[in-house]
Automatic annotation (TrEMBL):
GO terms for molecular function: cytokine activity; frizzled binding. It comes from Acropora cervicornis. Ligand for members of the frizzled family of seven transmembrane receptors. It is found in: Secreted, Extracellular space, Extracellular matrix. This is Protein Wnt.
Amino acid sequence: MCPQISYTLKIVPWFTFRTGFQIVKNESKIVCKCHGMSGSCNLQTCQRELSLFVGIGNALHEKYDNAVRTKLERHGAANDLYEVKKNKNGGYRRNSAKLKSTLKKPDSGTMVFLNESPQYCKRDPEYGFPGTGGRTCRINSYSSDSCDELCCGRGYHERQVLTKSRCKCKFHWCCEIRCKQCSTIETKYFCDHD
């Protein structure tokens, strides 16, 4: 493996680990308890306690949303990570070779990344992503399975689908359950293709 790639694979996770560790530390609190006869505080013990995981998760999510794209460059005797200039629209170039450095090192506590995440919405055979075209979505959901979220703004269509399921089940003595098969027509929603 090329020494520069090896160094890059070590330094980027280190930034992320350090940021995550700092968040866990900042979100923790010191809790003290008193010990003694009838509630007197003759002896007090204190320890650091983690806060609720949701607080840590929210802080990490905010850092993730504000992560800074970096590039490994050699200035002087050492290789180091430097922030990358953004386009006029606030994004980054897709082509890593054309990225320009700001010569500014990322701040401590900043999450960094080297490459843009793949576009999961579109089909990409090179990476084995099937895309979201044709996927079933839920029209009334506010979660990641919602049609607005899952279909990536391409739209969706409605289709009537025949589904079969077990119904009218009855228990027969001893130890047997007998069911009928019922068919229903349901309205399902599917993401449009590109």
